[in-house]
Amino acid sequence: MITINHYMAVSAALLLIGTVGVMTRRNIVVILMSIELILNAVNVNLIAFSKYHNQVTGQVFAIFVIAVAVAEAAVGLGVLIAMFRNKGTVQADEVDLLKW
Fold first, then answer.
1. Domains of the chain, first to last
2. What is the rounded distance in angstroms from the CA atom of residue 8 to the CA atom of residue 64?
C-alpha cells in the first residue's frame, strides 16, 4: 500500500532535481523547466496531505498552483523569445538586459 511517506519521497526527489536544475544550469529553458518541477513537487505535497486529512482544500489549491504555473510558463517563454530576438542567445549569464 502506498503511504504518505511515498508521496513525500517523490516530492522531495522532484524538489531536489528542480533545485539542482535551477542552480547549475545556464540555459533559460532548462531553468524554466526546473521551476515547473519545483511547482509539481508542491502539488504532490498539497494533494497528498489533502488526501491524508480527507479535505478538498489542498486539491483546490493545487489547481490554483497549476494555473499559476501555466501563466509563468507562458510569460517566461514570451520573455525568452524576446530576449533571443534581441541578443541571439538563451544563456542566462550572457543576457544583461537590465544594464544600461
1. 27-91 (1.10.287.3510)
2. 20
String of DSSP letters for 26-55: -BHHHHHHHHHHHHHHHHHHHHHHHHHTT-
The three cell numbers locating residue 59: 486539491
What are 31-90's pLDDT values in tens digits?
A: 999 999 999 999 999 999 999 999 999 999 999 999 999 998 999 899 889 888 888 888
More confident position, 98 or 61:
61
Instruction: Name the amino acid, one letter, at 38.
Output: I
User: For the whole model, what pTM was predicted?
Assistant: 0.87
Residues 6+ apart with CB under 8 A from 8: 45, 48
